[in-house]
Design goal:
The structure is a single chain. The chain has seven helices and seven strands. It has helices spanning 12-23, 36-45, 63-77, 102-129, 156-176, 200-209, 221-232; strands spanning 3-7, 27-32, 53-57, 82-85, 138-143, 181-188, 243-246. It has a seven-stranded parallel beta sheet with strand order 3-2-1-4-5-6-7, with helices on both faces. The termini are far apart.
Length: 255
């Protein structure tokens, strides 16, 4: 049984990833800011059995929380085979690029880049110390965004942070290849989650009327989870640093 650590998995995309990896046969260890009782209930309602689940309330920007998350995971399950860096935030307030505050930049980049970096460093060292299984010691999947390559001038800090996640993927794929650890990136597009609920009318128009996506529908959290599942499969063992765009074809430039 593989052991998967997933950040930000109490709802939305992260919850779908946890459910899919569980269905793939993994035990799932999750860290999120959500209240433990509520999160555990929601995870169990998603069909995840308590004996194959560990939940830790914590903040990925805090080194002690990251270390404790790993320690509890290893103490419970013995090793770590998969890390999914899913936790992320958007700006609390959308501002024009010229009015973006340093506080907002520090908040978004601190979670999305610094937190991702710290978690990957922490877990990668554990993976390196482990014996390989079927020729590899682990898989790391970063969840970034189509904002890694798309300009949104009213949330520039978010775009910068997701571009940073893309570079982290390249860097760790390069650094960890000799350690038998594969590193990948999934870039969700317009996904129906609580984060996008407030702009549903805008994206309904863009998708259904203006055809901004070649595949004319909203993405679902399960679409992203399926990409993660594929990248964690043993058949991807000769690949690293690759990107899957779970964006309905949005990345295709069309005339």
């Amino acid at each position: 049984m593989k052991i998967a650590m997933i950040t930000g998995a109490s709802r939305g995309i992260g919850l779908a990833i946890a459910k899919q990896l569980y269905n793939d046969g993994c035990a799932v260890s999750i860290m999120d800011l959500a209240d433990a009782e509520t999160a555990q209930r929601d995870l169990q309602n998603a069909g995840i059995a308590p004996d194959r689940m560990l939940y830790r309330k914590g903040d990925i920007t805090v080194a002690a929380d990251r270390a404790d998350f790993l320690a509890q995971t290893v103490a419970t399950f013995g090793r770590v085979d998969i890390l999914v860096n899913n936790a992320g935030v958007a700006p609390r307030v959308r501002n024009d690029l010229l009015d973006m505050t340093e506080e907002s930049f520090d908040f978004v980049v601190g979670v999305n880049v610094k937190g991702n970096l710290g978690m990957t460093q922490t877990v990668a060292k554990q993976m390196i110390a482990q014996a390989p299984v079927n020729g590899r010691k682990g898989v790391i999947v970063n969840i970034s965004s189509c904002s890694a390559y798309t300009s949104s001038t009213n949330r520039g800090e978010y775009c910068v942070s997701k571009a940073g996640v893309s570079m982290l993927t390249k860097l760790f794929a390069d650094r960890l290849a000799d350690e038998q650890i594969n590193v990948f990136e999934v870039r969700p597009g317009i996904i129906a989650t609580p984060m996008t609920a407030g702009v549903k009318e805008k994206y309904d128009r863009l998708i259904l009327q203006e055809g901004v996506l070649p595949i004319r529908r909203w993405g679902q959290p399960e679409d992203v989870a399926n990409c993660v599942s594929l990248l964690c499969d043993e058949r991807m063992a000769y690949c690293t640093g690759d990107v899957l765009n779970a964006d309905g074809g949005f990345h295709i430039q069309r005339l």
